[in-house]
C-alpha cells in the first residue's frame, strides 16, 4: 500500500527562532492521528510520528520545500478539482497547466516544475509517446500518471517508458497526495489493484513478454515505431542521431525476434503499447 511508504513522514513549517522545540498533539497525517514534535536546525525540520501501524514510528530529517506540479489533463473539471485538493496541502502547488502534448512540452521548456501529473489520453498524442518525449526533454523530471484507464498493459507501457508512477482517477485523494510525496523522494508507485493484476499476470506466465527485456530507450523507440513514425522522425523527436535510432531498432528487433516492420507494428498494437 502507498500509505505504508509514507506513514512515517510529514512536512511542516517552524518559526524563525532556531533550535526551538514545538509539540503539536493530535494532528493528522493524510487522515491518520499522529503525535508530532518539531525541532528546527538550519532550516531542517525533525519530525517524530506515532503512526497508525505498529512499528511505523519514525524520525526523519526533510528539507522544507514546495512541490511545483504541472497538471496535464484536457478536462477542466479534473484540473480544477486537483487544484482544490492541493490547496489543502502545505507543500504542493499547481505551477502550470496543459491540455495537450505540445503544451506539455512548451510548459516544460518555459517553466520550473518538480513533477508532472499526466493524463494518458491527451488529444493528438498517445500517452506512452508523450512520456518518451518528456523523458528526452527533461530526463530528471518525475512523471506521475493519473489516468482513467486501469489496463495492465497501458500501465506497464507507461512505467517502461519512464513514468515514476501510475494511479487511476478513482484513487482516494490522500492516496494521490501520498504518491506525490513518494515520487518526490525517489520512489515509484502504482495503483494497488493494477499491482495485484500485474503480480497475477507474472504468476500465470512462465516467461515475461518479449518487450519486457528492452531498455527504457529501446521501449521508447519501439512505441514510436509502432505508432507509425520513421527513423528520421524519431531521431528528431528524441534529439538523437538517425544512426542511434537505427542501432536501437536493430537491437530491439533482435531481442524480440521480430523480422520486419509489419510484425513490429502488429506486436505494438496487440499489446496496447501505443496508449
How many structural units, i.e. domains?
A: 3
Mean pLDDT: 77
Secondary structure tally: strands: 10
Topology order in helix (H) and strand (E) letters: HEEEEEHEHEHEHEHEHHHHH
Distance between the termini: 26 Å
InterPro entries: CheY-like_superfamily (IPR011006), NreC/VraR/RcsB-like_REC (IPR058245), Sig_transdc_resp-reg_C-effctor (IPR016032), Sig_transdc_resp-reg_receiver (IPR001789), Tscrpt_reg_LuxR_C (IPR000792), WalR-like (IPR039420)
GO molecular function, one term: DNA binding
Modified residues (4-aspartylphosphate): 119
Domain HTH luxR-type: 207-272
Structure in words:
The chain has 275 residues and is an alpha/beta fold. It has 3 domains: 2-63, no CATH class; 67-203, Response regulator (Rossmann fold), CATH 3.40.50; 211-270, Winged helix-like DNA-binding domain superfamily/Winged helix DNA-binding domain (Arc Repressor Mutant, subunit A). Helices cover 43% and strands 21% of the residues. The protein contains 11 helices and 10 strands. The strands form 2 sheets. Strands 6-5-7-8-9-10 form a 6-stranded parallel β-sheet, with helices on both faces. Strands 1-2-3-4 form a 4-stranded antiparallel β-sheet, with no helix packed on it. The longest helix is centred in the C-terminal third of the chain and has 15 residues, at 242-256. The relative contact order is 0.10. The model is unreliable at 1-64 (pLDDT under 50). This is Response regulator transcription factor. Pfam families: GerE, Response_reg.
